[in-house]
Amino acid sequence: MRILVKESIIATYLIISPDPDKLPLDKCADALADEQGLGLRGLPNREEYYNALKDYVVEVIDIIEVKRGVGIVKLAFPTDHLDYEIVDIPNILNLIAGDAFGSRYVKKLKLIDVDFPESLIKSFPGPKFGIEGIRKIVGEKKLPLIGVIIKPSLGLKPEKVAEIVYKAGIAGAHIIKDDEKYSSTKYSRFSRKMKVISKSLRKVEEETGREVLYAINITGKLSNLVERAKKAIQCGLNALMVPIITMGFGALRMLAESDEINVPLYAHRTMHASFTRDQYHGITMRVINKLTRLAGADFQHIGAMIGSHKEPIPEIKIRYRYVTQPWYNIKPSMPVLSAGIHPGNIEANMRLLKENDVLFMVGRGVYFYKGDVEIGVKALVQAVIAAYENKPIEEAMNKFKELKKAIEILGYY
C-alpha cells in the first residue's frame, strides 16, 4: 500500500468488474477514483486540469485482487475537500459514496470500511454520556443492561405505554424505548404521551431508587426537532431516540451538540438493511457504526449473534470494537444487541461476545408469558446474572422461576 503524504480519508471497497476482459480491476479502481474525485474523465483538457489540481486528486493506494475482476480497493480522499467548520456526515458520504454505486464502471460495489484522520474525528462531538455516563445514570456498574421495546409496535394509547413502562421499570429494566414506527400519532399525541410516561418514570424511581431511561421516538419535522426534544426533557423524559437513516445523521448531531439537550441519545438503524444486507453492494454496518458514533450516539445497534436476525460472530465483534475502542476525543457508544433477543439466548450472546458493556434490547421476547412484561423483564435480569456468574443452566432454572418459565416456553440456545 502506498504511503500518503497528504492528510486523507481512507475508504475501503469491494469491487466487482462488469467485464474483466474490457475493464480489469485496476481500471475499475481508477474510474471510481476519478468519479468520486475530480471527475476529469471525458473532459477535453483532462491533462491540463490534472496537472493544475493534482494536490486534490483522489488516489488509488492499494488493490488486492482476490479473483479475476473482483477485489479490495483502497482510495485516499484528501481532507482538503472538506471544510472542518461546517463538515458533517453528509459531506463525508457525498465524497466516499455519492454516485459510486450506480457507476457503469462497477457491477457491484460495497463500501466496507472507512478510516479518518485525527483532525477530522476531533471536529465531531461524539456521545455526550458514553458507556460510563449511561452506567452512572442507571446505577449499574458491571452487568450488561436490559432494555425493553414497547409492543405492540403501533396502536397503543399513551396510558397503556405508561403501564408497560412502570411494570418493566419495577422489574429491573434499565431503559425502555418506543418502536421506531411509533412516534406522535393521532391516537397517541406526543404531548400526552410524554406526560403519562414521565409520571411512570417518577413512580419507578420513588419506589426503587433507580432512574430508568425512556427513549421517546422524536421522529418528525427537522425544523422543530430541538424544540420537540426540549419539551420532552422539560416534561421529565430522560432519553431521546433518533432513527439515523430515516431522520439523518445531521438530526442526531444537532441534538448531540445542543447545550439544551442533556439526556442520552439512542440511535436506531431502521432501514439500514436496504443497503447493508447485500454482501456485494451497498455500505456495511461497520461504516454506519463509525459515522453514528461520530455524530453523537450514546446507544447504537450492532446486531446480534444469536436471535432472529443473527449475523456472523466475527462481524459483530468488529462492530463492537468500532463503537467502543479509544478514538481520540470521542466517547464510546453503548453497543446494543437486538433482533430476536430473549431470556433463552442471553447466555449464548454473552458467551460469544465476551463483553459486559452491552445493552440487550428486547421486544417480543420480553412478552413471552401472556404479555406479562414484568415476568419477562425478571427473566431477562435473571438470565444476565446467571450468565455473568457462569451458572449451569439447570442450576439457574432451579434458582430463578421466571427464567425457568421463559426457557420452557422459548427454548435455550
Task: Give the SSE map.
Layout: E1 8-16, H1 25-35, H2 46-53, E2 59-67, E3 70-78, H3 89-96, E4 108-115, H4 118-121, H5 130-138, E5 145-149, H6 158-171, E6 175-177, H7 190-208, E7 213-217, H8 225-235, E8 239-243, H9 244-247, H10 249-257, E9 265-268, H11 273-276, E10 282-283, H12 285-295, E11 299-303, H13 313-324, E12 334-337, H14 346-353, E13 359-362, H15 373-388, H16 393-399, H17 401-410
Helix pairs in contact: 6-7, 6-15, 10-12, 12-13, 14-15, 15-17, 16-17
Short note summarizing the structure:
By secondary structure, the protein is α/β, with parallel strands linked by helices. The protein is 40% helix and 17% strand. Helix 12 runs parallel beside helix 13, helix 14 runs parallel beside helix 15 and helix 15 crosses helix 17.
Amino- and carboxy-terminal Cα gap: 43 Å
What's the helix count? Answer: 17
What is the structural class? alpha/beta
What can be said about the biggest beta sheet?
A: 8 strands, parallel, barrel
Shape: globular
Number of strands: 13
Low-confidence stretches: none
Radius of gyration: 23 Å
Roughly what percent helix?
25-40%
Which labels suit this protein?
413 residues, alpha/beta, 8-stranded parallel beta barrel, 5-stranded mixed sheet
Description of the structure:
- By secondary structure, the chain is an alpha/beta fold.
- The chain contains 17 helices and 13 strands.
- It has helices spanning 25-35, 46-53, 89-96, 118-121, 130-138, 158-171, 190-208, 225-235, 244-247, 249-257, 273-276, 285-295, 313-324, 346-353, 373-388, 393-399, 401-410; strands at residues 8-16, 59-67, 70-78, 108-115, 145-149, 175-177, 213-217, 239-243, 265-268, 282-283, 299-303, 334-337, 359-362.
- Helix 13 (313-324) links the parallel strand 11 and strand 12.
- Helix 6 (158-171) runs parallel beside helix 15 and helix 12 (285-295) packs parallel to helix 13.
- The chain is globular, with a radius of gyration of 23 Å.
- The two termini are 43 Å apart.
- The mean pLDDT is 95.
